[in-house]
Design brief:
This protein has helices spanning 24-30, 49-59, 103-111, 130-143, 149-154, 164-177, 204-212, 219-227, 241-245, 249-266, 268-272, 282-302, 307-324, 330-333, 336-348, and strands at residues 2-6, 8-12, 15-23, 31-32, 70-74, 80-82, 87-91, 97-101, 119-126, 187-188, 202-203. The protein is of the alpha/beta class and 366 residues long. α10 packs across α13 (307-324).
Length: 366
């Protein structure tokens, strides 16, 4: 069946192309992905299964949106272009062109149950040579700049609804602004250092993404449910989940403040000279975060999550590192995820034999 859509012509130095709004279900029937690995003049990279899975999940959100266009190289003589009336028409059972940009959006929509809910903006480009297709693909993918994660977290300050991301941002902001915090003026809130932040080694993005692991296993799912005023799970396997569920974010902040204040005091030299040590860099910080669930659970068993509890435990960690002849440097731990895991393992080694005999204090108040 022949179908017809209005178009808007756009003139640029490369020539004229056309923008239309097309139902996703029609695009899925009429467009083709031609990968470079197939040979010939295909320009697309192979599809990423993980990226497709992310988009499938995103499609189920009530506020899901794909505002950027699918870019299509139209096959010659397949699509009828009516420039006088600004319309295009084609057979909805015929492949009309190949995707130059947007294959993952389409593949994600195809695997979801929600493709019928979407119309997609589409750029139709006619008469492209293989060289022009390759040029357009390379320009699209080489000129895009990924948005700074720290800025994304900072934007949650503007939202009125509760979410794991907003909580993580507010904790990061508090840690960076409180003079008693070991992170005072040491977080790059928008991803870059401000004046006077000579000791800042962590971005807000790294800090917020990491601490969210302590109270939300599926932060995007939680965000979606909270935005729709739907209940979230009271338990999801994360160690501080109950405090987030009960909207006791101040307790999460206090636990983290106690933990990192103790850490900064036990490892004072390492904390105060971040250029020489990994403790305040991504490797060290994430290594500590990975170890925290087990340490916090140990404290919860005895209802101890005070600064003194963490101080006592990190002293044992320091002794353990000394016995091993290890220092918190990249020379001893390296970098990357393997180094983070190695550090977390070292931090947790004394846990089974650790006992704390300080004054018992309720975790609800300290």
């Amino acid at each position: 069946m022949t179908i017809e859509f209005p178009i808007l012509p756009v003139e640029q130095p490369i020539g004229v192309f056309y923008i239309a709004s097309i139902p996703a279900d029609i695009l899925l029937k009429t467009l083709k992905n031609v990968h470079r690995s197939m040979g010939g003049d295909g320009v697309q990279r192979d599809a990423s299964k993980s990226r497709i899975k992310e988009i499938v999940s995103f499609c189920s959100n009530t506020d899901s949106v794909f505002p950027t266009p699918i870019i299509v190289s139209v096959y010659n003589n397949i699509v009828k272009l009516d420039e006088e009336n600004n319309k295009i028409s084609f057979d909805d059972n015929t492949i009309i062109g190949e995707v130059l940009d947007g294959q993952h959006r389409l593949l994600g929509l195809e695997d979801s149950d929600n493709s019928s809910h979407f119309s997609m903006p589409v750029v139709f480009m006619f008469g492209l040579t293989p060289e022009e297709k390759a040029y357009i693909f390379s320009i699209i993918n080489s000129k895009q700049t990924k948005v700074n994660q720290s800025l994304l977290y900072d934007l949650f300050e503007l939202t009125s609804k509760r979410s794991p991301q907003k909580t993580a941002h507010e904790i990061a902001r508090s840690m960076n602004s409180m003079q008693e915090s070991p992170f005072f003026n040491r977080l790059k809130m928008l991803g870059t250092k401000d004046v006077g932040q000579d000791l800042a080694t962590l971005s807000q993005g790294t800090f917020a993404q990491s601490i969210m692991l302590l109270f939300s296993k599926h932060p995007n799912k939680d965000k979606e449910r909270l935005y729709n005023d739907e209940p979230i799970d009271s338990e999801d396997g994360t160690v501080l989940r109950m405090f987030f569920y009960k909207e006791r974010d101040e307790v999460i902040l206090k636990v983290l403040l106690n933990c990192f204040t103790a850490l900064s005091k036990v490892f004072r030299e390492e904390w105060e000279t971040p250029k020489e040590y990994i403790l305040c860099k991504t490797t060290g910080f994430r290594g500590v975060i990975k170890s925290l669930p087990s340490i916090i659970r140990k404290g919860i068993e005895y209802r101890y999550l005070t600064e003194d509890f963490f101080n006592s435990y990190f002293l044992k960690v320091k002794e353990n590192l000394s016995d091993k002849g290890k220092s918190l440097t990249s020379q001893d731990f390296g970098s990357g995820e393997a180094a983070q895991n190695d550090l977390a393992d070292c931090i947790l080694e004394p846990l089974n034999s650790f006992t704390y005999t300080g004054n018992q204090v309720s975790t609800n108040n300290n």
